[in-house]
Amino acid sequence: MLEGASPLSDRSASSRKSEEAFLRYLITLLLLAAGAPLLTIAHLFWNNLFRRDNFTYFCQILLLLSTAGTISMCFDSFEQERFDAFEFIVLIPLPTRSMLFMISAYDSIAMYLAIEPQSLCFYVIAASKRKSEFSTEAGSKYLILGAFPSGILLFGYDRTTTDI
């Protein structure tokens, strides 16, 4: 009876791995598809805060392709290290979108709005090791050291122009 169950469990484990691999590539494709509208329609919503030219498109496409490569490398390294932290994959789209906005920013307010969500994700990544007190300390330090310059920057914008 145990001999008959063994090949079935091996087959189900291999099918689970293939399903996980398919799901990983599907997530990567969906992330790329989620960033694609930013290449074409961002200028319509923001009153010329973003620049549209061929170099901007080239840099944005290069960024999306490198993000897809990064995600696929993350999946491979997570398998090798037996590391189950879905937070990293969930946190990748927000900095990617922020970088897409930052590439095409034409105004310093747009640049600020692009940098701020990106920095918040990096604070979370810095504090991601839950069992390490150094990681928690690093995350809180980055949050505090990032909040003060952000507040000072916003207070300085009220008397100046924001054109780059």
Q: Which SSEs are present, and which pair or pack?
A:
Blueprint: H1 2-35, H2 37-40, H3 42-45, H4 54-81, H5 87-91, H6 93-103, H7 108-126, H8 133-156
Helix pairs in contact: 1-4, 4-6, 6-7, 7-8
Protein name: NADH:quinone oxidoreductase/Mrp antiporter transmembrane domain-containing protein
Transmembrane segments: 21-43, 55-78, 109-127, 139-157
InterPro entries: ND/Mrp_TM (IPR001750)
Tell me what the structure shows:
- The protein has 164 residues and is mostly helical.
- It has one domain.
- Helices cover 79% and strands 0% of the residues.
- It has helices spanning 2-35, 37-40, 42-45, 54-81, 87-91, 93-103, 108-126, 133-156.
β-strand amount = under 5%
* Fraction of helical residues: over 70%
Report mean pLDDT, rounded to a whole number.
74
What is the element string, with H for helices and E for strands?
Answer: HHHHHHHH
DSSP, total strands: 0
Q: What number of domains?
A: 1
Oligomeric state of the chains?
A: single chain
Helix/strand-derived category reads: mainly alpha
Quickly count the helices: 8
* Largest pleated sheet: none
The backbone outline, from C-alpha atoms, is flat
Q: What is the first-to-last residue Cα distance?
A: 73 Å
Radius of gyration computed on alpha carbons: 21 Å
Uncertain segments are none
